[in-house]
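Curious: explain these tokens?
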Amino acid sequence: MFKNLKEKNIKSNEKVIEKSSEEKAVKNKITKEKMYMIMGAMWIAAVILGFINHRIEERAKSPEIVFTRTDGTVKEESDKIYVFYPKDNSITNEEIIVSKVKSKDEFLKATIFETLKKLEEGNFVPEIDKKDIVYYILDKKIYLDLPEKIFDNVTNAKSELLIIYSFVNSLTNAGGIDSVRILINNADLEKVKYANLLKDYTYKKDI
């Protein structure tokens, strides 16, 4: 009987020892998993903090832009026109700066009106309404229709030719125009005062 009790006690002790070993192994496993999780969290936190610190350092290196100054002035583009007009009983030319034109048609119109302006300023022609001057182009020839009154201030043949060649030289110098035909009040006239108008005029330096 005592022998049986002793064997039971021994078996019970063995079971307790086995159970304690298993519990210890489980506890060790749980402890290791917790340590790995803590170490992983610490590593992630270190990476995030390192990135934030790097961004702060980079911002500190570059100056903070409070505002950007911009140039408020608008740069206007321009074109150059060479205008011919009478001076000292001969013909001369001058470079005129005009606002940028968008087409060849606008460039020719500006050339005509700037030439007219120089003639008016020198009192070679009376004041002319711009709407009374029209033109059209055929190939490389321009038909320039002028009002008859443009020759009102003419006193001799030379002064009339100087007016005609002011327009002719200015227009043929503009590019793309080889000759000019002068019309008066939308009609071909042989002459107004002196010059023959039934001809095509081309560039001429000496009048």
